[in-house]
Specification:
Blueprint: H1 19-26, E1 31-35, E2 57-61, E3 65-74, E4 86-93, E5 100-106, E6 116-125, E7 128-135, H2 147-150
Antiparallel strand pairs: 1-2, 3-4, 3-6, 4-5, 6-7
Length: 152
């Protein structure tokens, strides 16, 4: 009899600061928190704005497009739920270049600097959905809607 497969490590989705990010992902929406006073993007989500110290922010849907900022391929397995190899990408959003989000691609993905990426949503178990990134199949600009935004 083979050993059961170890479950993937899941994020805490009910945190007061980041919970709405995961709630939106479950609806296949990408959202970022913004300061209600100075409009600064607050990602990673924070309880208050580090610029103006406002303690109220709002979550806004953003386009799911970006560019590869950096990446690395993980070759050494550190958890049974994350088999290697896989490639971790840091994606800089087109619409808000001050925001960078993480994602992973299976295997030793061929990635290049400034490569166009688009969001997709991975169901990872226990009702958790994570935004992930994949190379864009059609050239996009910040003004081009993704299929998720068009309701497709």
């Amino acid at each position: 009899m083979s050993a059961p497969t170890q479950a993937r490590v899941l994020p805490v989705t009910d945190d007061p600061d980041s919970g709405p990010f995961f709630e939106a992902a479950a609806r296949h929406e990408l959202v970022i928190r913004f300061c209600g006073r100075c409009e600064r993007a607050l990602h990673l989500p924070k309880a208050f704005c580090p610029d103006c110290h406002e303690d109220a922010g709002e979550w806004r849907r953003v386009q799911g497009t970006g560019r590869v900022h950096t990446w690395t391929t993980v070759e050494h397995q550190v958890h049974p739920g994350h088999p290697t190899p896989y490639t971790v990408v840091v994606v800089q959003l087109d619409e808000h270049p001050e925001v960078r989000l993480l994602g992973s691609l299976p295997g030793r993905a061929e990635v290049r600097p400034d490569q166009a990426m688009e969001v997709w949503f991975e169901e990872v178990g226990d009702g958790v959905v994570l935004p992930q990134w994949r190379p864009t199949t059609v050239a996009t600009t910040p003004d081009t809607a993704t299929p998720e935004e068009d309701g497709a």
